[in-house]
Amino acid sequence: MNTKLIQFLETTNNLELELDFLANNFNEKIVFSTSFGIEDQVISHEIFSQNLNNIEVFTLDTGRFFAETYAVWDKTLLQYNKKIKAYYPNTEKVENYVNENGINAFYNTIELRKECCFIRKVAPLGRALKGAKIWITGLRAEQSENRNTLKKIEWDEERQLYKYNPLLNWSTEDVVTYLKKFGVPYNTLHDENFVSIGCAPCTRALKPGEDFRAGRWWWEDKTKKECGLHR
Q1: Residue 116, annotated as binding a ligand
Q2: The model's pTM
Q3: Which residues bind [4Fe-4S] cluster (predicted)?
Q4: 160 neighbors 131 (Cβ within 8 angstroms)
């Protein structure tokens, strides 16, 4: 990625212009990963409404989503008439994990939880990012302590690509205001105090006073609450 493009993305602070500029000035593979949370729906709306067809939108279907997540996935396809590519975990690895450890083994130890995340999310992500040179994410700094030191554009040495976090400095209020303004479909679990929504067995609604990530893997030490997608 050239210096001019990096500088534009880092300093413009206009999502519509940034994505348009990126799509029209970068000739290598660009992908955007969505889990259908409110942040991701903002980015999907911009990509789809601007017809930025050279940005591939994909999702990692773990097989354990909430019904509401599948519903907003379907609504998004219907509203924009665009494709969202689905990547799935390796069937044999899922079968082996469940048969050896149990259907909900991730509750038992951190190691088993991380193994489940690796099989269902991290490994499929590797396939989704193959050949990509820019990976767009919906990460925001206020989502967790681990994310408030992120940069808007980062070089991922392990994956050999640039990671672009266009909503890094957006607040939750900014995101919600945007969704309402443009009539973007969203996961209705957000109305029930679900904030960060992942797999159904590993996600719950927040209780009053809890931080953003408290509803994910709530039985674990809060310092370990990442699945390995964003190292």
Answers
A1: yes
A2: 0.91
A3: 116-117, 199, 202
A4: no
**Amino acid (one-letter) located at 168:** L
So which residues are the catalytic ones? 227
Angle, nearest 10°, between helix axes 15-25 and 38-49? 60
Please name the residue that has the structure tokens 């955007």: 32
Rounded Cα–Cα distance for residues 64 and 50 (Å): 31
**Residue 199 annotated as part of some ligand binding site:** yes
202 a known binding residue? yes
pLDDT tier, 6 (very low <50, low <70, confident <90, very high otherwise): confident
111 assigned ligand-binding residue:
no
**Stretch 158-174: mean pLDDT, rounded?**
94
pLDDT in tens, 118-145: 999 999 999 999 999 999 999 998 875 6
- The amino acid at 96: N
pLDDT score recorded for residue 222:
67
Q: What is the mean pLDDT of residues 65-72?
A: 98
pLDDT (tens digit per residue) in 188-205: 999 999 998 999 999 999
> Residue 106 has what pLDDT?
95
